[in-house]
Amino acid sequence: xxxxxxxxxxxxxxxxxxxxxxxxxxxxxxxxxxxxxxxxxxxxxxxxxxxxxxxxxxxxxxxxxxxxxxxxxxxxxxxxx
Length: 81
Description:
By secondary structure, this protein is mainly α. It is built from 5 helices and no strands. It has one domain.
């Protein structure tokens, strides 16, 4: 199981069951990348949520902004399959 999927388990049994209201809790539980913590995963989890659940994109962006994290979304993550 990937780290992104493990992070989702904090609030939901799967990415498909993740509710908008729980996005902040999931992202806030993830370590953030910093000079002192290069192994943080909050951005990876945010991008994973956007890729798997495009309808939660704005909520993810808003939560990351509120947490003080810069999130650059690659073009591929914006594409809707």
